[in-house]
């Protein structure tokens, strides 16, 4: 993969096929890799999603992981992941001309289907907290297994056009680098843009098996919901199903 035009201090590694870019970044972190190190693959044999789920990673997609050493307590780094979803939306818009949304907390969606998954894993070493930010984007995928067809989408399936993965990768790296620099200066610098992109507010949702209505996004990026009895709650983590997405009708 040729990434012409990228100028950055931290190194970028690439392989055609790896088990998991997150796994490779963790290995590099253990060797003292610097803040901002990137690992990119054309395909993954053991891509991972949230809660240990497998993430289908065939050729034609964009799979990368970024090592972050934010120099702050873990609770102050929580906004990195939703901010990364904003960066993906920006990159897809810039390269493909498509307007994506974000299903809380960090699934990038296009046409009601999941386009991108983001998995952030936290750990510590002698230098303190480090994060592995993993991003997988379905770019040129033409078909998904039957069990994923109601859920997963791709740039190609939505637009009917093929996209050069290298071009999208190059722009996404630029957007992530810009985001990370801005985030270091202001942890909530992308909050309003995230709110504008989030598809949940105004929709009926399920919190576990409990129905509610999504009201908005709080200052800490939690989802504000109201239950039928009028009680309100901020959901900071967990499974939230939104009507019209991923089989919840």
Task: Please provide a written account of the structure.
The chain has 249 residues and is an alpha+beta fold. Helix content is 24%, strand content 30%. The strands form two sheets. Strands 1-2-3-7-6-5-4 form a seven-stranded mixed β-sheet, sandwiched between helices. Strands 11-10-9-8-12 form a five-stranded antiparallel β-sheet, with no helix packed on it. The longest helix has 21 residues. The chain is globular. The N and C termini lie far apart (40 Å).
Beta percentage is: 25-35%
Mean pLDDT: 88
How many helices does DSSP assign?
5
Shape: globular
Distance between the termini: 40 Å
Extended strand count = 12
What order do the strands of the largest sheet run in, or round the barrel if closed?
A: 1-2-3-7-6-5-4
Structural class: alpha+beta
Helix content, binned percent: 10-25%
Order of helices and strands: EHEEHEEEEHHHEEEEE
List keywords for this structure.
249 residues; 5 helices; alpha+beta; globular
A few lines on this structure:
It is built from 5 helices and 12 strands. The chain is an alpha+beta fold and 249 residues long.
């Amino acid at each position: 993969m040729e990434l012409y035009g990228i100028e950055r201090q931290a190194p970028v590694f690439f392989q055609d096929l790896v088990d998991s870019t997150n796994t490779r970044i963790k290995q590099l972190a253990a060797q003292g890799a610097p803040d901002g190190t990137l690992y990119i693959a054309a395909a993954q044999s053991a891509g991972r999603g949230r809660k240990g789920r497998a993430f289908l990673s065939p050729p034609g997609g964009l799979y990368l992981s970024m090592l972050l050493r934010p120099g702050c307590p873990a609770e102050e780094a929580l906004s990195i992941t939703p901010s990364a979803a904003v960066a993906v939306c920006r990159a897809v818009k810039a390269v493909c001309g498509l307007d994506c949304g974000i299903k809380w907390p960090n699934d990038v969606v296009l046409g009601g289907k999941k386009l991108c998954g983001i998995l952030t894993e936290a750990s510590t070493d002698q230098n303190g907290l480090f994060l592995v930010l993993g991003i997988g984007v379905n770019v040129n995928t033409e078909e998904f297994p039957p069990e994923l067809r109601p859920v997963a989408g791709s740039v190609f399936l939505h637009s009917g056009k093929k996209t050069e993965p290298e071009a999208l990768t190059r722009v996404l790296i630029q957007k992530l680098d810009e985001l990370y620099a801005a985030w270091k200066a202001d942890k909530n610098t992308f909050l309003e843009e995230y709110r504008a992109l989030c598809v949940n507010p105004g929709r009926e949702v399920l919190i576990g098996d409990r129905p509610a209505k999504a009201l908005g996004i709080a200052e800490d990026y939690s989802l504000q919901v109201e239950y039928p009895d009028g009680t309100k709650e901020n959901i900071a983590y967990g499974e939230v199903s939104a009507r019209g997405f991923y089989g919840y009708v």
